[in-house]
């Protein structure tokens, strides 16, 4: 595949609209009949190429609410809420207060970054090139790729399905494959199908949780007393909750870049903010409530043995018989809403990681991701899960540092002015920032992050006293280091 006729770096004066046309003609399989058929069916090919202003025509701004609502209205949010009582020994009141206030705080960065999409027409990782640089953002994209292929959602699904046919591993593996294929289909088709799917997927999940709350409500009224919470336990649990939501920041604008450029920023922010907060807070608190109550209900306690969230939900729904099994299946399927947007954004991060990959239609990378995830999900719980979970605990801090750099770049360096982003150079490594300031700030911040980490394999000296405060320090330290380093960097390469 030759690039002689089309070089977006050398010819950066062309606008995004003509770039899309040229890129389409030079992409892999450009002239094949099956690819033309996919286009006629409305399958989205666009990867990281900017959306031109004339193509940003979507005025249904509530779509982003449903994207993030369905992505979080599932067993994953419920599971995260159970960690407060089980992993950190917190009572129900303390757990719910941490869930409420940490979510209200840490959902601000993802919601704010979502407002960049309509103004710039850039995917979030591409927009980060204006602070991390053409090559520096590759490091961020690698971390995001690792996050995207994490198979924790599939493990939760496997545990849930194991309650339906306890002794049949084949059924559980087939269930994982079915859920993966549904998620692949949605992400393969692209933005329009993804939004349509997310608008509907939450409805049966709501029914399942309403039934569960109705069946178990009497046990939730008077939770057993808990030991007084320690500051270390509260801060460590807060770090887990923060990591759960702030990781949406590197993908936020992927779902708003088709909106009209004149959309009020407060509308995009509000829809995104509510789409994240409403399902996460409700289900995390519900998960915590059922976990605390399980100690007083023998059937629930047996189901939740060794942290099996699927067993807990199956025990709660068991009084309604086969209908409860049907609802259990729906709860397993609810993970597809989260997995679909993960696969969708994986495509963008992969094209930023390997810029030449933008010559390959976006949907190929959804297939690549699922080809990696399925075998890892089936065998990973036996061989790799603990190791990767510990590693993910480490890379989770990068989302906070990423937010600090991108937000400080916009508010301080560019004074909140979107006109200061020269979109002609979105793919020009010779004009984009060097990225040394951003990477340097992140590395310097590690000097405070590492002593503040509380992970299975390492507890820093600060964390032994305070609990895990790595997320908080990652944001603050990176922001403080970035400003002077960026001002120095601007002496060597002007702002674009």
UniProtKB/TrEMBL annotation:
Keywords: Membrane, Transmembrane, Transmembrane helix, Transport. This is Uncharacterized protein. The chain crosses the membrane at residues 64-88, 95-112, 132-150, 171-194, 200-221, 233-251, 326-347, 359-379, 391-412, 432-450, 470-488. Signal peptide: none annotated. The keyword Transmembrane applies. It is a multi-pass membrane protein. It comes from the Eukaryota. One of its GO terms (cellular component) is plasma membrane. It comes from Rhodofomes roseus. Its main location: membrane. GO terms for molecular function: transmembrane transporter activity. Coiled coil: none annotated. Belongs to the purine-cytosine permease (2.A.39) family. It is found in: Membrane.
